[in-house]
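Task: fold both queries, return tokens.
Query 1:
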Amino acid sequence: MKSEVKISENRLEITRIFNAPRDRVFAAWKQVDLLQQWWGCKDTIKVHSTMEFKVGGSFTHEMRIQGAGEMSFAGVYDEIIEPERIAYHAQFGPITVRVTVDFITLGDQTKIVLTQDGLPSSEICNRVSEGTTDAFDKLDQLLARQQPEVAASYAIER
């Protein structure tokens, strides 16, 4: 499935439906070993993440991107309602961006609505949307590859 992207000034909203239950999709955001497999644009070679997945906890994602070098992304979790919502604020250079990710059950599928507020321009929103849709493509592939028994173990951890 393709991502639906809406951009208005400094706000970016990306909607995507995944062919996996909400618990599995949410687990891919909270389990560092899973997140490192899909985070970043299509040219991302390696991701190293540290996460303290709790309200007030911090995270850092260090990415090596082919042809672009190293990039780091850090933030703090503001809200976690498992398995419905993750909200955090993150640093994009000198700018703080508020990100909200909603996980909505659609039968045996999950709709994600990711909203980023505070990006400096629609041009930056376009660039960020490209990387995020690439990451969602990789997340879709990861969810499709997961073995049913592995996926069930992540749901039990909830």
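Query 1 returned. Query 2:
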Amino acid sequence: MSAKRYTHQQINKSLSKPFLLYIFALPFILSVIMALFALNIKAFIFNGLGMVLYMGVLYLSNKGFSQENIYHQSILAKAPKIPYKLLSALLLSIVVFYTSFMISHKSLIESLFVSMVSLLGYYLYYGFDPKGDKLKNFGDISSEFVLQTIQEASSKLEFIKFPCRYQKIFIKSKSR
């Protein structure tokens, strides 16, 4: 038996997180298609608006998950300035209220209750946005300077790793 070298690999769990949100998009899509085939313009407009709002929830959630993933993978990081997951949860609550009250014609109390349950469920399943900065005390050097230096070094390493992207630019400029 030979020993294998251990290589630590970060598994990108944030890409599988919004799976449930995509499943809940299916009723919106189906309702828009059914209203279109039934030539019910009012239902098509209301369901279409709900679907567009829900696509906004998906967009904000994906942005928030990628932001959170970058935050957790880096050793030194500032907390995200824009809480995309919070905005997504609030928009989801608005979409659920709109769908329940305007489209399904439920009472105001029922719609508010379902809306609050969706807000709570989003937070229980997906969690909160990172709030604290992951910065260390470097003595006389500020954390901002360290983050800026790391970002510049990363961009230079990107240039070194993938010179073929930039090589075409240099070859074209030399041939002219």
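Both queries returned. Flag for query 2: Residues 10-15 have pLDDT under 50 and may be disordered.
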